[in-house]
Amino acid sequence: MIKTKPTATTATIQAEFDRIALVTSAEGWSQNSYYHDFLLRHTPAGCRKALEIGCGTGAFSRRLAARSEHVTALDLSPEMIRIARERSAEFPNIEFHVQDAASSDFPSEEFDCIATIATLHHLPFKLMLDKMKRALRVGGVLLILDLLEPESFYDLLTSAVAYPVCASLRLLKQRRLRPPAEVRAAWAEHEQYDSYLTLSEVRAACNEALPGARVRRHLMWRYSVVWKKVVV
Ligand SMILES: C[S@@+](CC[C@H](N)C(=O)[O-])C[C@H]1O[C@@H](n2cnc3c(N)ncnc32)[C@H](O)[C@@H]1O
Q: Best mutation site among 62, 72, 76 for ligand 1, i.e. most ligand atoms within 8 A of its Cβ?
């Protein structure tokens, strides 16, 4: 059974991400940004229009903008979007919107690339797969990175390895072992509502909606889906 919806209301999720945006002063290394290069390797050549759903403060949108003619980036949190706009002044080809992806209809066959990072667990998974699939042009690529619920001994083993790796990378990139206390407190408040899919659940949903999708487990509690739309 797929756990599709978090128990928090949309208003609660928005308020929590507004708080997270305000306490997170710098955009440094994160367990999501670590996978940006991996995702960018799969963006289609000659990408004209890209869409990012749940763009946060826009770090990945700016990287997409460097290889696309135009990026539409949306997020539920007005504070995230305010900061994203401030940090993206040098990228006139990004258009940021405060927008709830769950209640949005995207134009059909519009985008060459759609990316979403650490966001889908806040949204109805299968509904979003269908929406994103429809919004992609033929030849377009869907890129998903999100958090994973452990379901097996192998997942627990991977997690045990991930802790020291993550701490070492944070120390190397940010000169600290853990985020500051106020950032940890904001995330702890938010994470009480978070629920994630298992790899089996992701694979089952992708087999149905995105034939041929490449679903991968990544070390730091994440999975990715890379899917190229070949037929309408
Ligand atoms: C964990 S953050 C990840 C942000 C960014 N993708 C990153 O990797 O840094 C999840 C983001 O999803 C956004 N979000 C949550 N629910 C959303 C919804 N229904 N529509 C649009 N964005 C949403 C949040 O506001 C938040 O910025």
A: 76
Assigned domain for 122 exists? yes
The pTM of the full predicted model, rounded to 2 decimals, is 0.94
- Tell me which of 105, 119, 123, 218 to substitute to probe ligand 1's pocket, judged by most ligand atoms within 8 Å of the beta carbon: 119
Range among 9-13, 34-38, 174-178 with highest mean pLDDT value: 34-38
Instruction: State which residues form the domain around 215.
Output: 10-150+181-228
Angular region, 121: left φ>0, alpha ψ -120 to 50, beta rest: alpha
Q: Per the structure, how many domains does the chain have?
A: 1
The pLDDT assigned to 175 comes to 84
Task: Confirm whether 164 is domain-assigned.
Answer: no
103 within domain boundaries: yes
SS3 for 83-101 is HHHHHCCCCCCEEEEECCH
